[in-house]
Amino acid sequence: xxxxxxxxxxxxxxxxxxxxxxxxxxxxxxxxxxxxxxxxxxxxxxxxxxxxxxxxxxxxxxxxxxxxxxxxxxxxxxxxxxxxxxxxxxxxxxxxxxxxxxxxxxxxxxxxxxxxxxxxxxxxxxxxxxxxxxxxxxxxxxxxxxxxxxxxxxxxxxxxxxxxxxxxxxxxxxxxxxxxxxxxxxxxxxxxxxxxxxxxxxxx
Length: 204
What we know:
It contains nine helices and no strands. The protein is an all-alpha fold. The chain is elongated.
C-alpha cells in the first residue's frame, strides 16, 4: 500500500509539473511517467487517462472551494433573513476573505492549472461555473435585501456584473500577488468595498 501511494504521489507531482509547463493538450503521458520513474502501465493502474490524471490534481481543491462558497452564502442568507434591516460593518467578511485566499494559495498550482491550462478538459469552464454560483446566490441575497426595504427586485444585469467583479478580484490577486498574506490583506479591503456597495445598492 505504501509503495502504491508513493507511486501515485510521484505521478501526480510529475503530471502537475508537465501540465504547468505545457498545458493539458500538449502534456505528454510518456514524459510524465518517465519523470515519475514508472511505466505507462503503472499510470493506467491508477488513472483511466490523461484527463483523469488532470482531474486528480484539480478536482479536490475545486470542490472544496465551491463547498466553502456555498456554506458562506448560506450563512449570509440566514443572517439577512433574520435581520429587520441589515447593516454592513467593516470587517464583516474578513474571515471568509482570508479563508478563500488561504485555500487558493495552498492549492496555487491546481488553481493556476484550472485558470490557464485546462483547455481541452471538462474543467475549462470552471471559472464560468464559479461565477454562476456567485451570481445565483447574490440574487438570493439581493432579493432578501429588497424585501427588507420594500424595494423592487434587483437588476439581473447588475447582479451578474457584481458576481464577475467579485470572482475577478480573487483571480487578479492569485495571478498578480505571490504572497498569501499580502493577498489576504488586499482581499479584505476589496471585500469590504464590494459588500458595502452591494448592501447599499439602490434597486429602485
